[in-house]
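Minutes, project check-in

Agenda point 3 was the complex the collaborators sent over. CS summarized: two entities, 576 residues total, and the question is how they sit relative to each other. Sequences were read into the notes so everyone works from the same version.
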Amino acid sequence: MTEWIWLNGDILPLGDAKISVEDRGFQFADGVYEVIRFYDGKLFTAPEHLARLKRSAEGIKIPPPLESTHLETEIEKLLGASGLQDGMIYLQLTRGVAPRDHVYGSMPPTLLFYARELPPVPEPGAGPGVKLISVEDQRWQRCWIKSIALLPNILAKNEVVAQGADEAVFIENGLVTECSTSNIFALLGPRLITHPVGPKVLPGITRELVLEIAPTLGLIVEERGLGLDELRQADEIFITSTTREIAWAARWNDHPIRTGRCGPITEKLQQAYRDKVRAATGSALTTA
Amino acid sequence: MTEWIWLNGDILPLGDAKISVEDRGFQFADGVYEVIRFYDGKLFTAPEHLARLKRSAEGIKIPPPLESTHLETEIEKLLGASGLQDGMIYLQLTRGVAPRDHVYGSMPPTLLFYARELPPVPEPGAGPGVKLISVEDQRWQRCWIKSIALLPNILAKNEVVAQGADEAVFIENGLVTECSTSNIFALLGPRLITHPVGPKVLPGITRELVLEIAPTLGLIVEERGLGLDELRQADEIFITSTTREIAWAARWNDHPIRTGRCGPITEKLQQAYRDKVRAATGSALTTA
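CS then shared the predicted structure for the full assembly.
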């Protein structure tokens, strides 16, 4: 099936979409991006993603070419044309095309997004569980910006995948910050702990929803750096991202996490999250 | 005049050269680059640049598609076709094109290079002098890799340019590391001081040549982090890069550096550097 892309206002087959060699996204990683989930053909938390896109763009001084509401309408049009039911929108905004120079002037930005099918996520409580391996956090200090300068994440992720894991957990000064493609949470009794958003942590949209849900399940949220000792003692650990939703962790480096199965609180969070998806999109949520 | 590009083995006009939206260089900054100077139609220090390219590529596990000597021949062909006498080769190597996924498999890399004219640099001792402003070093920890994940450099550079400066000097823990697009040196009496290559400092080719030349002028080289106090007391400060060669610094934040003119030792280094260029390329070196 042809995949479609919206590129600077035109809709065309993804395979035909080309970028200039001198697009600053290609030469300088001078851009930001978003991944938005859709269920049953309906966007989920699009305003939150587009608000973050705006903050990211402001963070690197790229003027967004479209108002968020207009952009959402355009994304919906593309999604309709794609005929896809369950998947993600990948969106990228770069500063634009100009003869290579670190110093930028004013130029029209490059904006594009395309829709792609995704396999359903596992049922709450099910699935194989994520294997985590910790790595030193060598990234820059503005990870709150969802920038395309992802090379450090790529290197960390592939380093742990080569060791049989799924996700790299960044450690800075002995504290857990986030993962290479997700946020991370630990449950210690009734306390749900995750690192605050900031220089080393992206304001994840799924992360934010979990923090909203947690008190309704009687959990006490603590936003602070997790020590490695705490992580070893955690009752449950899970990661969150737009595409994976809430994924329970089965292993931490060489150690199984407690029972080696999805913990009961993680499962409740997954159910509550899926309730939100159903309420917002009307999806029946076919799952794996 | 048409600019020409070598793109995955084909030579075509730069304006016609397009990259896939799913090139990992565009979506992940998953690539490395080089800038090689040519004078009078001859490449300068090409083997050193191509050896660094190889190290950078190995640093992010991209298999180089061509042997360095073969690559140099291809660059020379393009340079000949371009008809340019004085300028730079911009070269970029990315992991290649694949459906977006942090985890990479095996794929053919994207390799490209193009030639572009550059204005001549000022005569030794001449020119307006570079204005420097210091900024906090917020970059990642593998700056020895010449990666295209340049967003932190872009932000720093443009921040100081907006304040009327030319170049941002990165400071980490009170020590000078390098600049946003160059290495930096200070002269204190007979001592020439620059930060060692490593997590925060690129192995600059011009930097390396300066370290070779320095002892022949009676200078004592010290490779260590420069304190801010030392920088304030420096007799001369200069920056080095492939395109700017050795550029003397006139201002450091709000302070003029000593006399506000190019210092005598910097001028000698510039002359010795240009002697090397003449010897290697046969260029008469037309200067500004």
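Noted in discussion: Chain B has a mean pLDDT of 96.
Follow-up: revisit at the next meeting once the mutant set is ready.
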